[in-house]
């Protein structure tokens, strides 16, 4: 084995370990998820310490129920706006909603969505959306942007209704 091959193997192993640490799949599978609300955030464990950097992943290994804080208005607005799509999986701990194929009202093409709410702020940067059409592949960027705008508009409406200006 040459030096280049060894370095590539080490780099690949390190990358796999780093990605594995980000997956969160090692969390306690027997824990009962009880989402709570705290202001604008959907919080799975209000006593969970906030992570500040990458090195914090290697500290406090006893905490198996590490949670991500997501904006509850964006979360609920995503479910409202895309209510015509059947939900395949919802994970408030990671902020991911995966839907199956469904046809929008008045539309002829079926779509599937993956929504990722990654931040507690009511902000466009907190929302990532991937749309795929059945048989057609990825959807045009303008369509994705229009759906994101509809979700963010609905999230703002929900916040106003909640009286938390």
TrEMBL record:
Cleaved signal peptide residues: 1-27
- Keywords assigned by UniProt, alphabetized: Signal
* Protein name, entry field: DUF3576 domain-containing protein
Species of the source = Plastorhodobacter daqingensis
- InterPro entries for the chain: DUF3576 (IPR021959)
């Amino acid at each position: 084995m040459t030096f280049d091959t060894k370095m590539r193997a080490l780099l690949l192993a390190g990358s796999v370990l780093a990605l594995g640490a980000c997956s969160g799949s090692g969390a306690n599978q027997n824990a009962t998820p009880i989402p709570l609300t705290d202001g604008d955030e959907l919080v799975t464990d209000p006593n969970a310490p906030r992570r500040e950097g990458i090195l914090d992943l290697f500290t406090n290994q006893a905490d198996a129920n590490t949670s991500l804080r997501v904006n509850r208005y964006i979360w609920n607005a995503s479910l409202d706006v895309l209510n015509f799509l059947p939900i395949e999986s919802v994970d408030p701990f990671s902020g991911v909603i995966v839907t199956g194929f469904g046809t929008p009202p008045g539309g002829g093409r079926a779509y599937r969505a993956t929504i990722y709410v990654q931040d507690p702020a009511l902000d466009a940067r907190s929302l990532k959306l991937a749309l795929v059409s059945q048989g057609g592949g990825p959807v045009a960027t303008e369509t994705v942007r229009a759906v994101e705008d509809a979700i963010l508009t609905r999230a703002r409406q929900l916040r106003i209704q909640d009286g938390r200006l």
